[in-house]
Design a protein that fits this description.
mainly beta; 4-stranded antiparallel sheet; 11 strands; 0% helix; 52% strand; globular
Amino acid sequence: QLQASGGGLVQAGGSLRLSCAASGSIASINTMGWFRQAPGKQRELVAFSRSGSSANYANSVKGRFTISRDSAKNTLSLQMNSLKAEDTAVYYCHDFTRGFWGQGTLVTVSS
């Protein structure tokens, strides 16, 4: 249902853009977001987008990450700038409304 892509290896200070393609329309999905899970840690919420409302971000990424959704392309994106080593994790997109998860995409930031 959700296909995440865009992860990779990047140096600290660099940027990556993650994409999450839905198999169907996302126009009716009220809330979508991104989570991440670092090795040995619990999965944490990074950012979420609720229809008709401004986006919300974890304090650790605020000002560096931007979540966006393109209903025409049925895609949720996460632009990640000024990446830090502590951003290294597997990133998952999530459909809060229907409970779907993407398969995860690995982001590795080298210091």
